[in-house]
Amino acid sequence: MRHNGQPVILASSLPPNLISLSERSCALVACPTCGAWKSIKRGMVTAHRGPHVPGADAWPAEFRPSPPRCPGSGQRVRVDLSVDQWRQRLADTCREAGRRRPTRVIPRPKPPVARAVVQLAAR
Ligand SMILES: [Zn+2]
């Protein structure tokens, strides 16, 4: 498989929730184009098919065209983090997100409903 010609993405430049590192299995990354989780083989996102073509659902399943190859296939990703570094970054990010204050929902009064034309004529 050839790379897609896009510049190399460093794992350290990605948010830690878009990459998954483990000692037991290969690294996973969310495809930068479609967001699907794909493994990294030979420093590239494995080939996969992209999201469905719009309007393809109208076709019967046996005639439905298969989605084209995702442009994020073959994206080069350099894993420059160790598993421990990635875990620490993920924990720090989760802690920081937990500290954020939720937005306060302010209920607004509903605008008055306009009378129907029939009701206006009755007056
Ligand atoms: Zn993709």
From TrEMBL:
Domain of life, source organism: Bacteria
Q: What is this protein's record name?
A: Uncharacterized protein
Organism field: Actinomadura soli
Q: What is the lineage of its organism?
A: Bacteria, Bacillati, Actinomycetota, Actinomycetes, Streptosporangiales
